[in-house]
Amino acid sequence: MSAKLIDGKAIAASVRAGVREKVAELTARTGVRPGLTVVLVGEDPASRIYVRNKGKAAEEAGIVSHQIDLPAFTPEKELLDLVARLNADDAVHGILVQLPLPGHIGEAKVIEAIAPGKDVDGFHPMNAGRLFTGGVSFLPCTPYGILTMLDHEKVELKGKHAVVVGRSNIVGKPAAMLLLSRHATVTICHSRTVDLPSVVRTGDVVVAAVGRAEMIRGSWIRPGAVVIDVGMNRNAGGKLCGDVAFDEAKEVAGAITPVPGGVGPMTIAMLLQNTYEAALRRPGSG
Ligand code: GUN
To answer: Which candidate among 2, 144, 226, 279 keeps its CA 20 to 30 Å from the CA of 165?
Structure first.
C-alpha cells in the first residue's frame, strides 16, 4: 500500500462537529433552530435507511428534524401541495425529498417546486445554474463533500488536471464545475468515452462516479494521483465496493478514498452544513 487513505469518516465527523457549534451559536444569538424536513414517498428499504440516518445526524447537530412518510401511491399533486406548505413554513429551513420517487411522480417537477432557498440538496435548476454562473447557491451534498475532502487533504487543484468519470446531474456535472471553480483543468468522461483508461491516466485528480463496481483499474491511475471514489456497489462476491478497484489503485495512487468510509459519510455532513446555511440565510435575516 503506497497511497494515503483519505478518511471520510473522520473528516465528516469534524464537519459535523463544526456544524453543531455553528448551530448552537446561531440558536443562542437569534433563537432560531435550523429545521430540516425530509419527505419519503414509498417503502424503498435503502431510502428508508438513508432518511433515518439523515434525521439522526441532523438531531445530533442541534437541527430540528422532521420526517414525513407518504405511501407509494400518493398522487403527484398531493406531494406538490405538501412541498408548497413546507415552502411557506418559517420553521422549515431545509426541504429534502428523497429520490428516487415512484414512477408516476415527475421528479423534476417536484424538485422545481422546492423553494431554491430551502433546497438543501442543491438539485433545483436555480441552484444548479448558480453553480455554473458563480452565484451563491446550495451545492449538491456529494460534490460539496468531495471538495471538502480535497481541501481537508490540502490537495492543490489550481492548474491540475481533474478527470471526472460520470456525468450525472447529482455528482459528475456539479463536481466538474466545482473543480473548475478551483482552477483545475477538467475533463468529464463517461461510459462512451473512447479509450477511457488513457483519459483517466492523465488525471492528477480522478473522481469516479459511474456506478459500476471496480470498473476503474489500478493500471488506469497515474502514479501519485488523488483518487476520489463516489461509487457504492456490490462486487461479484457481494462485498460493498466502489467504482475503483481499490486493492490495485492503492498501490499506484498518492491518496485514495476507501469504500465504505470515504465519500459516503461526507454527503450527510454536507447536508447538515447546507441546512445550517439555509437557516442562516433565511428570509428576513438580513
Ligand atoms: N437519493 C440518494 N441520494 C440522495 C440525495 O442525496 N438526495 C435525495 N433527495 N435523494 C437521494
So the answer is: 2
Active site residues: 54, 98, 121
pTM greater than 0.90: yes
Query: From the alpha carbon of 170, which atom of ligand 1 is closest?
Result: 6
**pLDDT tens sequence across 60-111:** 999 999 999 999 999 999 999 999 999 999 999 999 999 999 999 999 999 9
Q: What is the pLDDT of residues 190-203, one digit of tens each?
A: 989 999 999 999 99
Q: Is the pLDDT of residue 286 over 90?
A: no
C-alpha 141 to ligand 1 mean position (Å): 9
What distance in angstroms lies between residue 98's CA and the mean position of ligand 1's atoms? 5
Structure confidence at residue 87 (pLDDT): 98
Q: Which domains does the chain have, with CATH numbers?
A: 30-115 (3.40.50.10860), 141-264 (3.40.50.720)
Atom of ligand 1 at shortest range from CA of 140: 6
C-alpha cell at 130: 448558480
Kindly report the protein residue whose alpha carbon is nearest to atom 3 of ligand 1. Answer: 99
pLDDT at 272 over 80: yes
